[in-house]
Amino acid sequence: QVQLVESGGGLVQAGGSLRLSCAASGRTLSNYDTGWFRQAPGKEREFVAAISGSGGWTHYADSVKGRFTISRDSAKNMVYLQLNSLKPEDTAVYYCAARSPGYVVHTTAGEYDYWGQGTQVTVSS
What is the pLDDT of residue 43? Predict the structure, then answer.
């Protein structure tokens, strides 16, 4: 079982940047496909980005393409989400999630087995 803890959220102005971190313990995170999801008040949890265990592929939601970047540092057992050109509509709790690696990209929250506690990102206009 892998334990996940997110950090790096905060309050920024529109157009600003944040770097979210997902720290893993208990297991090697590079053995899992890892995703970032977000949930705004009153809305469903939505897919943001995913990265393969090896780092060989990445996938992004259309709403964040060109602005967000997912990456991993296997030596540190960490996955990151760089958020640039932030918009007020990006405001949400951001969650790190992991699942056993597969041959397709999973963009549904129910397909992920392990979750962090979330970190709040608030973007002011």
Answer: 96
How many alpha carbons fall within 13 Å on the CB side of residue 90?
31
Rounded to whole angstroms, how far apart are CA atoms 41 and 43?
Answer: 6
- Does pLDDT of 102 surpass 90? no
> What per-residue confidence (pLDDT) applies to 109?
96
* Interstrand relation of 10-13 and 119-124 (parallel, antiparallel or unpaired): parallel
Give residues with Cβ within 8 angstroms of 97, minimum separation 6.
Answer: 4, 34, 35, 36, 37, 109, 112, 113, 114, 115, 116
- Alpha-carbon span 31 to 52, nearest angstrom: 9
Q: What token pair was written down for 113?
A: 């087995």
pLDDT at 1 over 90: no
DSSP string, 84-118: -S--GGG-EEEEEEEE---SS----GGG--EE---
Residues forming a β-bridge with 22: 6, 79
Taking the C-alpha atoms of residue 46 and residue 31, their distance in angstroms, rounded to an integer, is 23
Looking at the DSSP assignment, which residues form a beta bridge with residue 50?
Answer: 35, 59
